[in-house]
Fold these 2 entries.
Entry 1:
Amino acid sequence: MDENDIIEIDLIIQAIHLKYGYDFRGYSKASIRRRITNMLTKAGFDTYASMLHALLIDETLFNSLLKEITVNVTNMFRDPEVYRAIRQTVLPALKGRSPLKVWNAGCSTGEEAYSIAILLSEAQLFPVYQIYATDIDEQVLKEAKDGIYDLKKIKDFTSNYQLSGGLESFSDYFTAKYDHARISQQFREQVVFFNHNLVTDSTFNEIDLILCRNVLIYFGSELQNRVFKLFWESLSPGGILCLGSKETIMFSDFADRFEALDPTNKLYRKK
Amino acid sequence: MGYQAVVIGASTGSFQALKIILPYLSSDFSLPVIIVVHRHRHSNTNFEHQLSQFSSIQVLQAEPQLPISGPSIFVAPPNYHLLIEEGRTFSLSLEKPVHFARPSIDITFETAAQVYGSGLIGVILTGANEDGSYGLTEIKKKGGVTIVQSPESAAVSEMPTAAINRSAPHKVLAVEEIGPFLNTLDS
Ligand SMILES: C[S@@+](CC[C@H](N)C(=O)[O-])C[C@H]1O[C@@H](n2cnc3c(N)ncnc32)[C@H](O)[C@@H]1O
């Protein structure tokens, strides 16, 4: 990447915003530039300028490359200790809320949202609950709604589930077919997946628990502040925010509007 | 303009090499030192703490948005790529491993070269992997100083050998010579 490459890459970021409305301008620069460089190699363009032009006239190309920019890696019960803390501390603290409302922001292919659905069903603390799961990438949202995962992944899911303190027979939550498994209808019905952009879309109402994990690490600090404001406004009093392992609210403008419930597991409560 | 930062990449054998290099850097070594080592993703041993046992400079784990300034040694957290941002802060990423490695030395070196240009010093140490040779080449292209531990003095020679072949570094030094040489660059 030389100086001109950087100018062209930044123009691509501008162009995506103008043409498709996805605003990546406030994302961490080094990180997003690198991912656009990866796109260049993958899509087989020689120059950023030619890729810029192709992206403007070919929406299908844009959609296929969106995945590269957004980083979709996820897992069920990712960081099992966090789910253990949610079982032991968070859910009991929210007891009595009805209906309990959970928002999973940046849900990718749905693993995180279904993990929460499983926790809530096992906890039996809430007679009525609703899980909203959102992302900006239509492709991952579609996969999330289908809830179909490679059998190879299920092994990993199962061991994470057990590490998180799960005691049930995990395979009962899936129906297996050939080389894949589908999460049971019961859980698919409990989660509503839809498109929502943390950068440009508005707040939710009276959410009790927000999980937004491994999304804000890709955001610059100004953009993080915007999102923390959005979360603060969306949470009900005493509502809880759960961030990813390397994300913290403590250096942001909103540090004093939340109290640390469990800083190791990145759990914060709205004051 | 003088040098502004040091990046060090290492894999297998890194601890022993750093144990020889870091004690040469006195507490007033003014440049921030950023260390990327490959370690097991679930490694619980506190690498930062172990390094601080023989370093007179404070050793911290690199965190997002932490300002990069010396005297400090920053270590990449396991299982994340570590990137250097324009405002001289860190960012992390969970993108796929590169050369089977996360953190990837190449990614940190390349983004650091972007920010520090000719003010950067890059060092590749022992390891059984080709990671770092691309990043070191980027540092050289941007006018930075490049150093590789001599393969003979390395616990595992593959990584230094790959870096030497690909980037033709400014200096190939025995592990004991690296610390003293870094001191001469800190003005
Ligand atoms: C690394 S995944 C995290 C998945 C899951 N939360 C986890 O921790 O395993 C990041 C997700 O954030 C989504 N994302 C990125 N920018 C976003 C935005 N502005 N608004 C909503 N989602 C976003 C990406 O599409 C991607 O699916």
Entry 2:
Amino acid sequence: MGFMSIVQQIIGGFGTTLFIFFFTLLFSLPLGILFALARMSKFKPLNWFMQVCISILRGTPLMLQLIVVFFMPFYVFGIKLSAGWRVYAALIGFSINYAAYFGEIFRAGIEGVPVGQHEAAEVLGFTRAQTFWKIVFPQMVKRVIPPVTNEVITLVKDTSMAFAIAYVEMFTLAKQVAAQQSSITPLFVAGLFYYVFNFVVAWAMGRLEKRLSYFE
Amino acid sequence: MSLFEINNVSKSFGDLTVLHDISVKVEEGEVVAIIGPSGSGKSTLLRCATMLETMDKGSLLYLGETAAHNNAEGNTVYASAADLRRIKGYFGLVFQNFNLFPHFSVLRNLTEAPIHVQKRGREEVEAEAREMLRKMGLEGKEDNYPQQLSGGQQQRVAIARALTMNPRMLFFDEPTSALDPELTGEILKVIRQLAQEKMTMVIVTHEMAFARDVADRVIFMDGGYIVEEGRPEDVITNPREERTKQFLARFAGQGSIDE
Ligand SMILES: Nc1ncnc2c1ncn2[C@@H]1O[C@H](COP(=O)(O)OP(=O)(O)OP(=O)(O)O)[C@@H](O)[C@H]1O
Ligand SMILES: [Mg+2]
């Protein structure tokens, strides 16, 4: 098998990797905001509950969490696992796990916005929701770009964890092809894809950071 | 009926009582300066008046409308959220360190609250905001961001932001303390101009010469008490109380640095 056909096969898996990556971000970023708000809630039970959840999500392997999500319907509800469930399980597992990390980053970002901003908004009569979305959130976004960039880059690489529930993305595919061919070339090709992908991610985040540099 | 009235306010942080049973009334068009040493409770009084801090005891009224009153046990109870929202529209506050919104342009710092809190029309508000900036000598700065301005300009934007809400009165907490000395004059000039226009103001300041010139009444606070209160000629020039004299002695020789 020639080099080009290896690349072609791996591109097929790359689509799956992109799919996991994109939808995980789409769900985990907003969910992270909810987690952060719950974690900062003055309603203590919610606050504690979130604290425990985040601690578990960050303190146990993502792989294990994926397996738990995948088998949950069967073991808890006795539902037979359908073939399509794998995709949803992967997205649910990744999204909740990343929301925990994003949540902690967002919380630090929100807490870093000076009290004076809240006070100025309060005196002007903004509601709490308006204060959050108009005043705090935009300033938080700027603050969290560097740590979020780190997480996003980790996510690109973490997509390979989907193999834990036999969801075939690029890395799993590369391993299969490598085994068939008795060659490590497919693995290098996959590595190259991850690298280029992350290069683009870092570039895009850098652009975003620049765009927000008009305020301090 | 006074425009502003805070009665018998007490406030403690833990074991530390910062305000002891203080009352202040301000009439329409009056300019009141609050002076006193660091830690005497001036900011806390202003923060209670503007509801950034809750009072332990005491009542608070604007235009005769009750924002807070004492219950049977003598503890402060605040009015409903809807009432407070309306009452908050009666006053503005200018902070020592401006607290402008760094991610908004100068113009948007002024227009955001009138449009989204007072629900006024954007065009009308923008026209008013531009006029306000012109009045503050900030013409042409509409599209700048706060960090591009000097401290004095930022504080003028903050004053303009408060004024664009059309408040009945303004509170200032040491509006020139965060500024380089050469920039305080431009802020004092703006406040002086507002005084001439009969804006009701309560100003916490360490600028004695300015307080004497611009205020109708001076309140000297120390240790959470109002020690002396009266016309500036009396309190600043001829203080009766020993503590006032001691405090003012520190400022002896401070000329009209504001001009
Ligand atoms: N949030 C708070 N928690 C605990 N103590 C506080 C708090 N805010 C103020 N204090 C204390 O209350 C006292 C009065 O503070 P306040 O800021 O009102 O003084 P001030 O007269 O404005 O002083 P300055 O001239 O330095 O601004 C001080 O001892 C201060 O440490
Ligand atoms: Mg103070």
